[in-house]
Amino acid sequence: MMPTAPPKDSAITIGDAEFDRICDFLYRRTGMIFGEVKRHYVDRRLRERIEASGHDSFRDYFTMMLADTDEYERLVSSFTINETYFYREEYQFRCLTTSVLPLVTQHKRRGDTIRLWSLPCATGEEPYSIAIWLLENWASVDDWQVEIVGSDIDTTALRTAAAGLYGARSLMRLPTSVTDRYFTRTEDGHFQLIPDLCSSIRFTRVNVMDRAAMAAHGRFDVILCRNMLIYFDDKSRREAIGNMYDCLVDGGFIFLGHAESMSRVSSLFQVRRFDETILYQKNTETAHG
User: Most C-beta atoms within 10 A of its C-beta, which of 24, 178, 188, 273?
Assistant: First the structure.
């Protein structure tokens, strides 16, 4: 038996100028920063897209990509990070039902709409987690019209989210009783969300740096934007946070990831300290221009 030949290295060369150009392009379009420390990651993903598109040089590919919306979305999707699972940072969901939603509903009438935005939603575990958590832990859930929207810049991730099909690792934090209620086991060992839950979430593509696209989603009572801003610099963070501010109702709340903070980025929000976590509430006395 002949030994398998090692795979050949790609013939496509990504020089320093090309690396700088793609990093600048991604930063200006998405706010994501990829420096020299991520050179190997960027080169590999970029070569994969160039080869998949049938081109053999960065220059030809880049020119084509600028004119091809579908390829642009595929390129951006290849650089996004979608590491997530159900009930991630569960203490924040607990804060949502024990502290935040009671404040949100103080100025609403029974039957009114409550809008929650998972941004970015990646492959859907977070918005589905919100829905499951509310059904399991919020006694007043049936008193309100709850609308949950999941948005991301990654169209591939959004297709996965809409399908509602997950591997065992995504469910590792869910109690067995919850898994049994909301999932069915497939023959190949995956877990399919029940149709009612899948259809309860609306998934959309949005770039947080695009103010008009963000505004088109309307206003929300709560935005969960967890573990995204750590990939931005301060300038991009300020722009993204300003766009989210405009998408909140007066007094609305933003959840950030445990390693993220508004402290050096924006004064638009009032810091709210709850038993479970620190949140940021829209300061209605501060205008965003």
Answer: 178
